[in-house]
Amino acid sequence: MTAQTPPTPPFRDPQLPIAKRIDDLLSRLTLDEKTAFLHQFTPAVERLGIAAFRTGQEALHGVAWMGPATVFPQAVGLGATWNTDLVRRVGDAVSKEVRAMRARDDRVGLNVWSPTVNLLRHPLWGRNEEGYSEDPKLTSAIATAYTHGLRGDHPTYWRTAPVLKHWLAHNNETDRSTSSSSVRPRVLHEYDLRAFRETVEAGAVAGVMPAYNLVNGRPNHVSPYLREQLRAWTDEDLLVCSDASAPSNLVDSEHYFDTHEEATAASLLAGVDSFTDHGTDSSQMIERIKGAYEQGLLSEADIDMAVRRQLSVRFRLGEFDGYDEPGAYDTPRHRALAQEAAEQAIVLLRNDGVLPLAPDIRLAVVGLLADECKLDWYSGTLIHRSTPLEGLYERFGAERVEFAEGVDRVLLKTSTGAFVHVPAADADDEVRGAEGALDPALLAGRTDLPPLTTDATGTELALVDWGEDLLTLRAPDGRYLSVAEDGYVRAAADQPGGWVVQETFRLEPHENGHLLRHVGTGRHVSVAADGVKVADENAEISEPPEIFELIVVERGADAVARVAAEADVVLVVAGNDPHLNGRETEDRTTLALPAHQERLLRAARTANPNTVLTLVSAYPYAVDTGSLRAALWTAHAGQAAGTALARVLAGDVSPAGRLPQTWYADDADLPDLLDYDVIGGRQTYLYFEGTPLFPFGHGLSYASFAYADLNSRAGEAALHVSFTVTNTGDVTADEVAQLYTRAADPSVPRPRRALAAHRRVTLTPGETVTLEFEVPLSELEFWDVAQGRARLEPGPYELLVGASSEDIRLRTTVVLDGEPGGPRPVTERGLDGADFDEQSGAEIVDRTKTAGDAVTPAPGRTAELLYRACDFGPGVTEVTVSVAGEGTVEVSLDGGATSVALSPKAPTSGPYDYVTLTAELTASGVHDVRLRLRGPLRLARVGFSG
């Protein structure tokens, strides 16, 4: 007899709908197998021929953490290009590199955790570099372009499956796993949700990742918005992947649940489908899921739903059809694209005519970033590297460029009179990477290199002051002093880096010298017979901290002044190291440029009035540029950063980057980092009423542009807007035309202006282009808290066209038919506590652990809540409040004296145990209602009846 071939199971049949294929595969999996699928590292099911799978591959601006890859500009730099076509091509290149790298390393995943669409609401946020813009429209446009590139262009299969980060209202690293963002409904719907929504609705998003923080008192990993908002935006199955260790945080740091079984069940029921916890060890999460199931907190159907969403992504990636797509990395096309992106990200902030530089110029290049090509936490390993200095050498010739880094060069003298000495690295000890660079992944943390010692002469060290008393120390051969696990100090890192940076120190005045504290361990440096090390505070016998005398051999400012005085133009390159003073886990404390870099800038400016500042940074600074000839900004622009900057300075490329966020003039202009009320706090360009240092959308050019012929027409569902832009300069250049809208006579606070559309165009001298835009009327809606939905208000709307949010060249007004508002029907709907029009001293918290909002006084405050135009109809005689805790609710009308005060007779048994209090209140017609909350009391609702 001839053996028969077993029939192909339906889940392997590409002709069937994905839903039916998933049904079939689910029916073949055991409960234990399905449970194991819920951890980030999903095991293989060999009996079904199913391979192992993992969620999560970082790809923010190139493939990260997996070795050599093309490194594109940071995300905020991609946002500064305002170029969706470019960003789509970057995403396309990154996804091809993911596929190529997976072919040689199965640790590389196809479920990419990117892009970050958190809005850059606050410029002191440590992760500013990861977002695109403070504006939801621009953010969603750039994110949509990137996800389309990551998804690829195959009609059926996805090249990679992008996951958006971080859901939701996440802009602080300070207490990030325990702090709660208080987000009123209007801010939630008009601002924070909008960037996610428009990107998801564009159709190339596979899922989202919840953030560590809480929103309105409830952890994002049990957010009801995952169900109520996210999953309502698309018919696709979206995969929700937890952030690393966040499932455990629900119990361990947030104390939101008493047991991990409760927390796991609540997360899965809220919509989390893949748990990222305990690294590659899935056993603890599996035990928690099993425990929740055995306790009746989860059903098998609940587990099936989460597995279904994960399988949906795997089917779309072509895994079960044997689909693969050949990829490539470090191709000539990708190298050219990295340079193009770096060029387009450069923003010219100020220029009095000194730029572009003359070809025969004598140039001084100075500053801590002048000969650096910095990476960040989410970068890949550089294959190519171009610093500003190298780019300028290449473009102008090394004979025309003088360099001074501007670091202080010091000796460290011990209390015995000896000096700290750095042993030379043998040739065999130096592990070299691409183009001869020391490979930081191989050198940092090494214990086989000799530790520092002392001798009679010592080694001159470069002391690099990064501000806020944080410094690095570097040996003459470029190696940074670092501390390994054994506690010894070695010259063993190419750059500061790592999750815990081991290359940073602080000098602390002590007696007649300084103690040197290692920041990574928090311990002081000591000197022993076997070498320099950090004190072991747990040892019975430990060397005492050394008291060092700091001997300055040369001050950086003196070297800068010397080379600046001899040049025609001096270029100061300042900024940040993305691993220091503002990064994941650490917010900045000020907008100010670090004091040492300010000294270098002053020294250059004093020595040479022809000073140009280039800021290379992950975030804005408040810098006085008024006395400078020119100023530019670029994010850390990846492997081609130096070449790109040199080409812009030389005029080979006209700069056309635009600021993706407001640059404020002073720290006093900023709200508190944890104030998420962009409306009440008048935050971002949308509401800020002060004078910025540089406005949102700002950026200059080497050409000039004229705007004309503004036309607009209102259709049933959209505004149709057109205008012309003409290059009136004498060089080919890009212009970024920006269209803003403004409600001219709003009934509630609305944005001063809001970006509605933009386009980056290339124009030759004298060329004119007509730009046409279609703006959906829905984008002019606001969230009406009186009705609990979006509403287009009728009346006049201004259309503003120009080169930035403040550089408006054309304007017109259109009158739109919308839906008239009216007073709140409080006898029918009552008042939800969080649906206030104005507040002071209040925080929004969770009404229950699963849904709803309540309002409570901020610690030490009395909360004042205002609800405008409440319609009591022919009359009411009674008011009721639903409250928990203890305290008092005072009710008044139209700002008058307190009419009613209601207090629970005794504190309720818990924050979610609400009681209803009733009192007499006589009113009719329309009135403003004011509530005052005193004490630790949660207000859920207010009702009125006759």
TrEMBL record:
<comment type="similarity">
    <text>Belongs to the glycosyl hydrolase 3 family.</text>
</comment>
<dbReference type="InterPro" id="IPR017853">
    <property type="entry name" value="GH"/>
</dbReference>
<dbReference type="InterPro" id="IPR002772">
    <property type="entry name" value="Glyco_hydro_3_C"/>
</dbReference>
<comment type="function">
    <text>Catalyzes the hydrolysis of a non-reducing terminal alpha-L-arabinopyranosidic linkage in ginsenoside Rb2 (alpha-L-arabinopyranosyl-(1-&gt;6)-alpha-D-glucopyranosyl) to release alpha-D-glucopyranosyl (Rd). It is not able to hydrolyze alpha-L-arabinofuranosyl-(1-&gt;6)-alpha-D-glucopyranosyl (Rc).</text>
</comment>
<dbReference type="InterPro" id="IPR008999">
    <property type="entry name" value="Actin-crosslinking"/>
</dbReference>
<dbReference type="Pfam" id="PF14310">
    <property type="entry name" value="Fn3-like"/>
</dbReference>
<dbReference type="GO" id="GO:0045493">
    <property type="term" value="P:xylan catabolic process"/>
</dbReference>
<dbReference type="GO" id="GO:0008422">
    <property type="term" value="F:beta-glucosidase activity"/>
</dbReference>
<dbReference type="InterPro" id="IPR005084">
    <property type="entry name" value="CBM6"/>
</dbReference>
<dbReference type="Pfam" id="PF00933">
    <property type="entry name" value="Glyco_hydro_3"/>
</dbReference>
<dbReference type="InterPro" id="IPR036881">
    <property type="entry name" value="Glyco_hydro_3_C_sf"/>
</dbReference>
<dbReference type="GO" id="GO:0030246">
    <property type="term" value="F:carbohydrate binding"/>
</dbReference>
<dbReference type="GO" id="GO:0046556">
    <property type="term" value="F:alpha-L-arabinofuranosidase activity"/>
</dbReference>
<feature type="domain" description="Cellulose binding type IV">
    <location>
        <begin position="824"/>
        <end position="946"/>
    </location>
</feature>
<keyword id="KW-0378">Hydrolase</keyword>
<protein>
    <recommendedName>
        <fullName>Exo-alpha-(1-&gt;6)-L-arabinopyranosidase</fullName>
    </recommendedName>
</protein>
<dbReference type="InterPro" id="IPR001764">
    <property type="entry name" value="Glyco_hydro_3_N"/>
</dbReference>
<dbReference type="InterPro" id="IPR013783">
    <property type="entry name" value="Ig-like_fold"/>
</dbReference>
<dbReference type="InterPro" id="IPR026891">
    <property type="entry name" value="Fn3-like"/>
</dbReference>
<dbReference type="Pfam" id="PF03422">
    <property type="entry name" value="CBM_6"/>
</dbReference>
<dbReference type="InterPro" id="IPR036962">
    <property type="entry name" value="Glyco_hydro_3_N_sf"/>
</dbReference>
<feature type="domain" description="Fibronectin type III-like">
    <location>
        <begin position="735"/>
        <end position="805"/>
    </location>
</feature>
<keyword id="KW-0732">Signal</keyword>
<dbReference type="Pfam" id="PF01915">
    <property type="entry name" value="Glyco_hydro_3_C"/>
</dbReference>
<dbReference type="GO" id="GO:0009044">
    <property type="term" value="F:xylan 1,4-beta-xylosidase activity"/>
</dbReference>
<dbReference type="GO" id="GO:0031222">
    <property type="term" value="P:arabinan catabolic process"/>
</dbReference>
<dbReference type="InterPro" id="IPR006584">
    <property type="entry name" value="Cellulose-bd_IV"/>
</dbReference>
<dbReference type="InterPro" id="IPR044993">
    <property type="entry name" value="BXL"/>
</dbReference>
<dbReference type="InterPro" id="IPR008979">
    <property type="entry name" value="Galactose-bd-like_sf"/>
</dbReference>
